[in-house]
C-alpha cells in the first residue's frame, strides 16, 4: 500500500467516528434515508442469502439503472448466484425498488471508512464486485484486493478534469486501477486516460446504450390522453432546479396559446419550490404527487413522481432534455426518449453523453441549442413543422436499436470472473 493510501485509510478511520452525526444531518436535508442510515455504516439491513453473491454498485440513478440489463442477463445465465446492488442516493433506491428483478437485493453503499467497509464485506462476502462508470473508493477497493475478491469496472468514464485530479497521486491510482480484474471503458478518450494511468482495458462497452424501453401501461396512457385531450404536449425531462423556471419562462408564449408543459424534475423533493417559481410567472400549476386535477386552464403539469418517465415520453409531442442548460451537470440519457421513438431538444452541455449525442446529432435525431433563448426559437419551429419531428423521431428509434451487441461484449468479459456453477 502506498504512503498516500495508508494515510487516507487512517484519516477515514477517524472520520468514521463523526459519520453517524454527518449522515443524520444529511437525512434532515433529504439526502439520506433516515430509516436506513446504518447501511451507510456497513451494517446490513437484510440477511445474506446462502450461496454465491455478485455485488453491483452504481452511485446514482443513471449508473444503477444502466446495470439492470447485465443483472437480468446474469440472472438468466447463472440462476445459482444471488444479486446485491448498492447505490448512494435515495432517488436511485426508490426507482430500483420498482425495477429490480425478483430476488435481487438493494442496500445503500457503505461510506469509505475501514470500519464500514470491513462490516460490509464481512456480511455480504461477494464472489465478484462490479462497479459502474467511475466510482473509485480507495478503502473499498483495497479491501476487495486484500480479500482476493475479483472486481470489475464497467462503462468506465474518466473526464479530463477527473484525470488531472487523479494525476496528483499517480502511484496510488495505479495501484487501485491495476487491482481491477476487468476494465471496460465506455469511450475512446476514457480508455486512453485509463491506460495512461496504468490500467489494462478490455473491449469498450457503454452500458447506458443498453436497456429496454421505459415501462408504460396502456391504461395509464389512455387515461392521460383523455385528460390532456388534443393539446400539444411539451415534456421537459430530468430538469434540475433552476432549469424548470428558465424553460417555463421561455416557452410561456406557447403555453399561453394552449400548449401543456409537463415538467419532470430530476429531484422531486424540490417540487414545492419549483411550483412557487412557476406560479410567480403567472402560470397555473397542477402537481402529480398531490393528485391535482388537470383542466383546460392548467398550463404546467408538475410530474413530481418517480418511475413514470415512460408515460411522459410517450405522451410528448416535443421532448426537452434537462441537465443541459445549467453548467456542471452534463445532460442526461437521450436514449430513454429515443427507445420510445422520440427525438430530443437539448441545451449546450451534454458532456456526460458526448458519444451518444454525437450519433443522434449525425442522424438528425437531436436538436442542440446554445441556451434558453435559442430554445424558444427551435421549439417554435418544431411546433410549426410536425413532419420534421416525425422524421427525427424515426431516426431516434433506429439509433436506439444499434447497440444490441454491447450486452454480449460485457457478458463475455464478466463470465470468466464468475465462480464455476455448483
Automatic annotation (TrEMBL):
Where does the record place the site Transition state stabilizer?
Answer: 133, 208
Q: Which gene encodes it?
A: waaA
Which organism is this entry from?
Asticcacaulis biprosthecium C19
Q: Where in the cell is it found?
A: Cell membrane
Which residues carry out catalysis? 63 (proton acceptor)
EC code(s) of this entry: 2.4.99.12
Q: Which domain of life is it from?
A: Bacteria
Which residue ranges run through the membrane?
none
Q: Which family does it belong to?
A: Belongs to the glycosyltransferase group 1 family.
Q: Which GO terms describe its cellular component?
A: plasma membrane
Provide the alphabetized UniProt keywords: Cell membrane, Lipopolysaccharide biosynthesis, Membrane, Transferase
Listed InterPro entries: Glycos_transf_N (IPR007507), Glycos_transf_N_sf (IPR038107), Kdotransferase (IPR039901)
The reaction(s) catalysed by this protein are: lipid IVA (E. coli) + CMP-3-deoxy-beta-D-manno-octulosonate = alpha-Kdo-(2->6)-lipid IVA (E. coli) + CMP + H(+)
Which part of the chain is the 3-deoxy-D-manno-octulosonic-acid transferase N-terminal domain? 35-201
- GO terms for MF: Kdo transferase activity
Q: What is this protein called?
A: 3-deoxy-D-manno-octulosonic acid transferase
Example of a GO biological process term: lipopolysaccharide core region biosynthetic process
Pathway annotation from the record: Bacterial outer membrane biogenesis; LPS core biosynthesis
Q: What does this protein do?
A: Involved in lipopolysaccharide (LPS) biosynthesis. Catalyzes the transfer of 3-deoxy-D-manno-octulosonate (Kdo) residue(s) from CMP-Kdo to lipid IV(A), the tetraacyldisaccharide-1,4'-bisphosphate precursor of lipid A.
